Backbone:
């Protein structure tokens, strides 16, 4: 699994605190030089046959095609130029519409076979509040363009749990997403992140977080609508048509090793984790060794986010049988063959369930 971080955006969204810089032609070359050098240096860390490549950000769709091509060539020279089982690129609807069908077709020709479109909402006032570049009409136009370019694996991102987002507007957003017929939908509850503009707004008293009750209601609306439309709720925040579950993200939940390239990217090697510093040139890497306890907590937390759950024998070995029994007794955990999972109607409170176990 290879992840490439693209730390550029054209503007910053209200809620976001990911590492990103305002995109400009001048910084792409230094970024590409650094990424290509890192790929060469770390080629030995990559699987002989990595199945997935993921360009995330930031906003990978702000990268000129020439830069993307250069990075893919560097991967090829490092021995990883084959056909990817899954090659995902996160894109902004505005970039797709602005750059048009020729751009989307070129991405396909370069091997991208899964598009993840950051739509977030189909409500224009909400999109303006989020400081997104696109409106709802442009989001739909972007979706049409990627379909026309031949992408048959498209994911849409949405956000709920904003204090002034009504249930009606949220239901309408979910309906419009479903009407487009994406293969995959990721939905995240808004949280106030440390370095975001939203955190400043909250500190000034201009934003108050939505109540748990409101978030729960909107999560339930989402679950019901997605189930009725035939999507599998395979992870707390993710829904897919059968066979379109995200392979790359699935690897994170199963704690498979991955190599993260680029400023701010994280890597995982099984017993160690490393992360690159957040600077456009000369970024460095820091590594930490995970303790046995960290590994155990992470294994349980990640596995129980999914509908596959966790091996029952592993849970019995590492958690109190009384805790497991009481969670099973109140329906917060169910046994399916040789595994335990959190049932969908308890996904919303999974953090508390996992806390009880560990
Ligand atoms: S949400 Fe995406 S587009 Fe918006 S600032 Fe964050 S990384 Fe950039």
Residues:
């Amino acid at each position: 699994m290879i992840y490439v971080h693209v730390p550029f955006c054209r503007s910053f969204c209200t809620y976001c605190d990911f590492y990103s810089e305002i995109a400009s032609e001048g910084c792409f070359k230094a970024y590409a030089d650094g990424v290509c050098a890192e790929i060469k240096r770390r080629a030995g860390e990559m699987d002989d046959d990595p199945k997935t490549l993921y360009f995330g950000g930031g906003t990978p769709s702000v990268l000129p095609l020439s830069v993307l091509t250069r990075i893919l060539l560097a991967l090829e020279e490092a021995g990883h130029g084959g056909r990817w089982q899954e090659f995902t690129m996160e894109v902004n609807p505005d970039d797709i519409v602005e750059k048009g069908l020729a751009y989307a077709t070129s991405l396909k020709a370069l091997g991208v076979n899964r598009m993840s479109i950051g739509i977030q909402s189909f409500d224009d006032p909400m999109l303006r509040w989020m400081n997104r570049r696109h409106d709802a009409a442009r989001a739909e136009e972007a979706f049409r363009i990627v379909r026309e370019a031949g992408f048959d694996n498209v994911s849409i991102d949405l956000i709920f749990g904003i204090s002034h987002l009504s249930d009606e507007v949220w239901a309408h957003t979910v309906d419009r997403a479903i009407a487009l017929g994406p293969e995959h939908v990721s939905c995240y509850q808004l949280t106030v992140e440390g370095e975001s503009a939203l955190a400043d707004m909250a500190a000034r008293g201009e934003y108050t977080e939505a109540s748990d009750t409101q978030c729960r209601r909107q999560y339930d609306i989402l679950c019901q609508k997605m189930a009725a439309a035939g999507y599998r709720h395979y992870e707390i925040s993710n829904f897919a048509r059968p066979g379109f579950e995200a392979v790359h993200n699935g690897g994170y939940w199963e704690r498979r090793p991955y190599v993260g390239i680029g400023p701010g990217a994280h890597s995982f090697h099984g017993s160690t984790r490393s992360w690159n510093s957040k600077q456009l040139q000369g970024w460095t890497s820091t590594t930490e060794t995970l303790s046995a306890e960290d590994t155990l907590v992470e294994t349980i937390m990640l596995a129980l986010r999914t509908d596959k759950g966790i091996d029952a024998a592993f849970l019995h070995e590492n958690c109190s049988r009384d805790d497991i029994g009481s969670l099973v007794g109140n329906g917060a955990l169910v046994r399916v063959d040789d595994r335990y999972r959190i049932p969908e109607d308890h996904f919303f409170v999974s953090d508390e369930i996992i806390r009880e176990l560990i």
About this structure: The mean pLDDT is 95. The chain is about 40% helix and 20% strand. Residues 9, 12-13, 16, 18, 20, 57-59, 92, 118 surround iron/sulfur cluster (CB under 6 Å). The chain has two domains: 2-253, 291-358.
